[in-house]
Write a structure and sequence with these properties.
Shape: globular
Largest sheet: 7 strands, mixed
Strand content: 15-25%
Oligomer: single chain
Helix content: 25-40%
Length: 387
């Protein structure tokens, strides 16, 4: 056998080895990329309080048997089924018709750099529950999430349905960042870390969430933890954590941190933010104690009969708004992430109908659009050409 013949016979095995080597290389690269993407996963779960902070958690009237609890309620609607039973899981997987917009969601980008904060009350909604409230010269940022997914991992989880209207670093300096609870669509580790670098404002959070922030590098002097009905004063800006009917948790354990809603008050003007909540008696009490409000940012999306006690329907949102003695209703918690089982546009369609029936003033901004609460634009139905 000649040398050429021996080389020819060797080629198939050699080719097989090269193919296997390439496959192993690709697998290693894929595993490396996955490991890199998951490198922050442990930190994203956050941390439980410890030491003196844990003692403060244990002393909360909302805390017993190792977890936080909702206030007793006769109005909170009982869930029709467990939140994640087999039937609900099948609906999540197979009933997907209309749950994402058919066309791009229009966003609004500020034409010029922002000047001083409004002396009245203005609200800029960035999508989902993220919003900037300007009130009598102060700026307050609510539940900011600027990541592509609301998830502990960058590769999985609900993906953003529209781009952020403006980069986080382009926001004006704010006076406070408020967090309602620690679910991933309201408390985002990557966004918090960016805010530590780009802003100097404190984070005001419900009890227990400070432990997450400390793990993510937020300085101690920028963390304010409150229980329900506790207040912090930042000059003439008064922030009060009020009740909500919800739950918390970032991993396998639930309710080790508190959840809540927020009253944002200037010297003479007031704004309310519901966070996530089922409809309950608390709204009437908050309205009596802290209202009337010039505006309320109210959760309207991701509702379902399977978790009726923790998320309001659009009709519930109108009831809550009236209980609060609020002026303008600005809907939040819809449009940006597919977190519910309803069609994408259903929350706003039902809200518009309910608000009209109850004569509730309503503004429906596009993501990034700024609303003057004293002179709001009429809803123009922009979502009708999208969904």
């Amino acid at each position: 056998m000649t040398k050429a013949e021996r080389m020819t016979m060797a080629r198939p095995g050699s080719t097989h080895r090269r193919g296997r080597l390439l496959a192993l290389t690709a697998l290693a690269a894929g595993l490396g990329a996955t490991a890199w993407a998951l490198r922050d996963l442990p930190a994203a779960f956050g941390r439980r309080p410890d030491g003196e902070r844990e003692e403060r958690v244990r002393n909360s009237p909302q805390y017993r048997d190792g977890v936080f609890h909702n206030a007793p309620s006769t109005l909170a609607r009982a869930a029709g089924a467990p939140g994640f039973d087999g039937a609900t899981a099948r609906r999540m997987l197979f009933e997907r018709e209309g749950r994402v917009p058919a066309h791009p969601v229009p966003t609004v980008r500020p034409a010029t750099p922002p000047g001083p904060a409004a002396e009245g009350v203005e609200v800029t909604w960035y999508g989902h529950a993220s919003a900037l409230v300007e009130i009598e010269g102060f700026r307050v940022l609510l539940d900011p999430i600027w990541s592509d997914r609301c998830s502990p991992a960058a590769l999985v989880g609900p993906k953003r349905l529209h781009p952020v209207p403006v980069e986080l670093e382009e926001l004006p300096q704010v006076d406070a960042v408020l967090i309602s609870h620690d679910h991933y669509d309201h408390l985002d580790m990557a966004t918090v870390k960016r805010l530590v670098r780009s802003q100097s404002a404190p984070f005001a959070v419900p009890l227990g969430i400070g432990a997450h922030l400390r793990r993510w590098g937020v300085p101690e002097h920028r963390i304010i933890e409150l229980d329900w009905d506790e207040t912090c004063n930042l000059g003439d800006l008064v922030l009060t954590l009020t009740a909500a009917h919800h739950f918390s948790g970032r991993g396998l354990t639930r309710n080790t941190t508190l959840w809540g809603s927020w009253v944002v008050a200037g010297p003479s003007r007031r704004v309310f933010y519901t966070g996530d909540s089922g409809y309950f008696e608390g709204y009437a009490r908050i309205g009596e104690q802290h209202g009337p409000f010039d505006a309320a940012l109210v959760q309207i999306g991701a509702y379902d009969a399977a978790w009726a006690d923790i998320h309001m329907t659009p009709e519930d949102a109108v009831l809550a708004h009236r209980d609060l003695s609020a002026g303008l209703l600005v809907p939040v918690h819809w449009c940006t992430f597919n977190l519910g089982l309803h069609p994408w546009a259903e929350p706003i369609e039902r809200l518009v109908k309910a608000a009209k029936e109850q004569a509730v003033p309503l503004a429906v901004p596009r993501p990034g659009e700024r609303v003057d609460v004293d002179n709001p634009p009429e809803p123009d139905g922009w979502w009708e050409t999208v969904g």
